[in-house]
Amino acid sequence: MMFSFTSFSRCQRLVNNPILTLLRNFHKEPIPVTWEKPEIGWTKLNFDGSCKGRAGKGSIGGIFRNHKAEFVLGYAESIGKTTSTIAELAALRRGLDLVLENGWNDVWLEGDAKTLVDIIVEKRQVRCAEVQRHVSDIISIIPEFDNCIVTHIYREGNRAADKLAQLGHQSQKPQIWRQIPPHQVLQIMHEDAEGKIVFRRR
Q1: Per its UniProt record, what Gene3D superfamilies does this chain match (predicted)?
Q2: What is the mean pLDDT of the chain?
Q3: pTM of the predicted model, to two decimals?
Q4: Which end of the chain is least crowded, N or C, by CB within 10 Å?
């Protein structure tokens, strides 16, 4: 049987029908997301970048926790006009600076920008020169640690870092918290430590 262009067009409209797409997505099972503690002796960094508005106002944030999910250090900072990609990379780069300053050697780096995590893990080249500069800088630092893993987590498991990145938008100057976290992340930290499952809709 011949498949005419008219039939093809009708099929395309059916495939691209927004109502059918919504129904398909509605019936997909949600993904359970849980923040995981690092191993004993390891320090885990969750980082995030944020970019808001037409002006592209950027900020960064990150949180370090130990194997008991206890707060070790947090940071937040406004970084001016930028893109979301650069903000994510800047958040990780600032975190790495703090790792070096504190002499931690077994570190777990985790963010919710999957494409960037993949680029760093696979040491891929990218076309944008500014992005490549940040990526190359990060890749050059990682071998300085005894052990380092870089992983992706969905945003639902990166809520503490996201909250700190949001605080960065409100900061007039770079902020660092040691031992005592800002009250805005206390509830999230408690839920993370308890292993709370947050469901992500596909």
Answers
A1: Ribonuclease H-like superfamily/Ribonuclease H
A2: 90
A3: 0.85
A4: N
